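Support request, please re-run this one:
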Amino acid sequence: MERKMLYDDVENLLSEYCKDCFVKAHFRKEHGKRHAHKFCISSCTVGEKLKLIGEKLSRP
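Re-run finished. Output below.
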């Protein structure tokens, strides 16, 4: 049951913050998809939250 809640949290974060993210769209347009993705993973606070949830999901 906990895994389902974690997946729901991921889905909510992505739909609420990442779907129409201006910063991601700007970086993707100016610097490319790879740069935008790297920013989201390493510098964005939402990306940090997603990484924490991912770590919880990868635990056995």
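The helical segments are 2-18, 22-31, 33-42, 45-58. Residues 2-58 form one domain.
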